[in-house]
Amino acid sequence: MHLDPFELHRPRSVEEAVRLASELSGQCDYLAGGTDLLPNYKMHLNLRPHLIALEDIPELRGHSFERLGAMERLADLEGDPAFRAAYPGIQDAVGEVATPLVRASGTVGGNLLVETRCFFFNQSFFWRASLGFCLKADGDRCHVVPQKERCYATFSGDLAPSLLVLDADVEVAGPSGRRRLPLSGLYDAAGDGIRRTRLAPGELLVAVHLPPSARGQRAGYKKLRVRPSFDFPELGVAVAGRWDGTRVESLRIAVGGVETYPRRFDALTDPLAGAPLSEEALGRVASEVMRGVRPVHNTFLLPDYRRRVVEVYVRRAVREAREGSAA
Ligand SMILES: Cc1cc2nc3c(=O)[nH]c(=O)nc-3n(C[C@H](O)[C@H](O)[C@H](O)COP(=O)(O)OP(=O)(O)OC[C@H]3O[C@@H](n4cnc5c(N)ncnc54)[C@H](O)[C@@H]3O)c2cc1C
Ligand code: SF4
C-alpha cells in the first residue's frame, strides 16, 4: 500500500488553518498525529488532495487541569503524574489507546475525531473493490445492513467516553468564528453515520474544556478488545461519580465502541443520586444499559457478545469506582 501524493499546508495559527480549509473546501483534511488518517489514506479511504498540518499552531498545544489542547499528544497526558491523579478515568482510557508508539504521535483531537470503523471499510482498495464498495467510501450500499441510506460503522475512540462522563466541552473554530459545545453535541447521533460529527465544513477542534466539578471524581474505564496490547475498542465503558459514604451523590456512565457514536445514560443514572447503590439497583442499571445499545456485526466480536459484556463492564466499572479513592 502506498500513500498518494498530496499538498501539505502548514498554517501558524487557528485562524490561518480555518481560512485555508475554507478556501480548499471539500478538498482537504486536517492532519494531527496522522496515526489514523494516514493509514486510511494508504487504503484509499476518502482521500483528499490537500492536508492542513496542525503541528505548528502553538494554541493547540498543552494541557492543564481545565484545558486539553487538541494537538496535545496522548503520551503527554500519560506522562503527567498530577494529571493522572486528578483524572484517573481519563488516564485509564489514554493508557488503553493502541500502543506507546501510537500514543507518542496520536493527539487528543485526533482521538475524539477518529474515523469510525467497520470490517468492510478498513480494508485495502483491492479488498473493497473485489467485494464491491460501500456507502462510506466509493459505493452506494451497506454490506452490514443492506440498504442505501445509512452507515453503521462503529465509533472506536477510547477517550470520548471518559470525557463525556466528566461533562467536558469542546471549543471549535470555523469560518464564522469560535463556539463551545458539550462533547456529547460533537457527535451526530441522528445523522447518516457517514458524517460522524456535527462539525461544520472546515471547523477545527481547538481544545477540550473540563469543568471544576470534573476533578477528583472516582472514575474508571473498561475496554474490550481482541488483542489487549494493541486493538481498537470492541466496547469501552467509562464511569465517573461521587459518593458520600455509601450514598451516591452523582453517577455518570458512557459507552463507546458499540454504536456509531459514544453516549451517556443519564436517564438511568440520575435517579440513583441521593441513596446508597444496592447490588440490585446496580444490576438493573447495567442490564438497562445493555438493552439500550445496538451493536451490529461489523467488528471482530459478535454483537450479542459485545452487548453482554456491556452489562458486565458497567457493573465492574461502577463497583471499582465506588470502592476506589477520590483523587
Ligand atoms: C495500530 C493502531 C491501533 C490503534 N488503536 C486505537 C485504540 O485502541 N483506540 C483508539 O482510540 N484509537 C486507536 N487508534 C487510532 C489513532 O491512533 C488514535 O485514535 C489517535 O489518537 C488519533 O490521533 P491522531 O492525532 O493521530 O489523529 P489523525 O490521524 O491526525 O486524525 C484523525 C482524524 O481527526 C481529524 N482531526 C485531527 N485533529 C483535528 C482537529 N484538531 N480538528 C479537526 N479535525 C481533526 C483528522 O482530519 C482525521 O480525520 C489506533 C491506530 C493504529 C494505527
Ligand atoms: S456499516 Fe455499511 S456503509 Fe458503513 S462502513 Fe460498514 S459496510 Fe460500509
Secondary-structure blueprint:
Elements: E1 7-9, H1 14-23, E2 28-31, H2 37-42, E3 50-53, E4 67-69, H3 74-78, H4 81-86, H5 88-95, H6 100-105, H7 108-112, H8 125-131, H9 159-164, E5 169-174, E6 177-182, E7 204-209, E8 218-224, E9 235-244, E10 247-256, E11 263-264, H10 266-269, H11 279-292, H12 303-323
Parallel strand pairs: 1-3, 2-3
Antiparallel strand pairs: 4-7, 5-6, 5-7, 8-9, 9-10, 10-11
Helix pairs in contact: 11-12
The structure holds flavin-adenine dinucleotide and iron/sulfur cluster.
Characteristic terms for this protein:
binds iron/sulfur cluster; binds flavin-adenine dinucleotide; 327 residues; Enolase-like, domain 1; 11 strands; 19% strand; four-stranded antiparallel beta sheet
Number of helices: 12
CATH domain topology of the largest domain: Uridine Diphospho-n-acetylenolpyruvylglucosamine Reductase, domain 3
Task: Sketch the topology as an H/E string, one letter per element.
Answer: EHEHEEHHHHHHHEEEEEEEHHH
Strand order of the largest sheet: 4-7-5-6
**Name given to the CATH architecture of the largest domain:** 2-Layer Sandwich
Helix content: 25-40%
Broad CATH class of the largest domain: Alpha Beta
